[in-house]
Amino acid sequence: MNCAIEGVYRNGAVELAETPPFHEPVSVLVVFLNKQKRIAKLGGMFKGTAVEYDQLEQDLKELQSRSAAHLLDESSADE
């Protein structure tokens, strides 16, 4: 059974986004993707624009952290 799981290579190790569905050792193939990806379906003034996925991921993590803090503040104010 083939299975693909997204992950990040950092400090000599691959961090997987989810737990693989295997309980025994299996062979793996690690492919390092290009850092700069292009969105093919954008047009107009955004045509050919490079997306900085590392910055996008960092911004989303910060937004998630701020959202969680805001929800916690609201729930404690309701008590």
Description:
With 79 residues, this protein is of the alpha+beta class. It has one domain (7-78). 33% of the residues lie in helices and 18% in strands. The protein has one helix and four strands; from the N terminus they run E-E-E-E-H. The chain has a two-stranded antiparallel ribbon with strand order 1-2. Strand 1 (7-10) and strand 2 form a beta hairpin. The protein is flat and about 50 Å long.
What's this model, at a glance?
With 79 residues, the protein is of the alpha+beta class.
How is the topology of this model organized?
Blueprint: E1 7-10, E2 13-16, E3 36-38, E4 50-52, H1 53-78
Antiparallel strand pairs: 1-2, 3-4
Average pLDDT, rounded to a whole number, is: 79
Structural class, by secondary structure, is alpha+beta
Biggest sheet strand line-up: 1-2
Helix coverage percent: 25-40%
- Rg computed from alpha carbons, rounded to a whole number of angstroms: 19 Å
In total, how many domains does the architecture comprise?
1
Coarse shape: flat
Taking the sheet with the most strands, its summary is: 2 strands, antiparallel
What's the total count of β strands? Answer: 4
Oligomer class: single chain
Residue ranges: pLDDT <50 for 5 or more in a row?
Answer: none
- Tell me the fraction of residues in β-strands, as a range: 15-25%
Topology as a string of helices (H) and strands (E): EEEEH
How many individual helices?
A: 1
**Distance separating the two termini:** 50 Å
